Amino acid sequence: MTTTPPNPSTPAPTKWSDLDEYIKPAHLQGAIVPVTIDHIEFRKLHPRPGVEETKPVAFFAGKKKSLILTATNQDYLQKTFGDDITASYGKPVTIHAVTKRVAGKDIETIIIRVAE
Fold first, then answer.
1. C-alpha torsion angle, residues 41, 46, 48, 54 (rounded to 10)
2. Residue 88 buriedness (CB in 10 A; 0-12 / 13-18 / 19+)
3. What span, in angstroms and rounded, lies between the C-alpha atoms of 33 and 104?
4. How far apart are CA 23 and CA 8, in angstroms?
5. Which alpha helices (DSSP H) does 47-112 contain, by range?
6. Which residues have C-beta within 8 Å of that of residue 36, sequence separation ≥ 6?
7. Rama region for 88: left / alpha / beta (φ>0; ψ in -120 to 50; rest)
8. Residue 33 forms beta bridges with which residues?
9. What confidence tens digit (pLDDT) does each residue in 36-52 have?
10. Which of 27, 46, 103, 35 has its CA nearest to residue 73?
11. Under 8 Å CB-to-CB from 37, ≥6 apart: which residues?
12. Is the per-residue pLDDT at 7 higher than 70?
């Protein structure tokens, strides 16, 4: 079996979390992170085997990872910036992890709030 040597112009990830495309609560390490919404795309996701859903995904200026928008975050952006999705583009917000009780279980999720 032959292996291809790593490409020196592309540094190898040093953490498993570097391989994640989407931001997860653990990535934030308890911090409130200021970001600017660059744009929102709709992507087909596979939350469970055999299930496909189209969800809005927020991309942030200068950030590699994007955020799958929960219904709570979608509602917040609509109430804050209006019904036009593009009205949130270029807006500074913060993201941070919170623990919520859902169906009797504590889960960590990320919420968006207007930057102060």
1. 50
2. buried
3. 28
4. 26
5. 71-81
6. 60, 61, 62, 90, 91, 92, 93
7. alpha
8. 95
9. 999 999 999 988 889 89
10. 35
11. 58, 59, 60, 61, 88, 89, 90, 91, 93
12. no
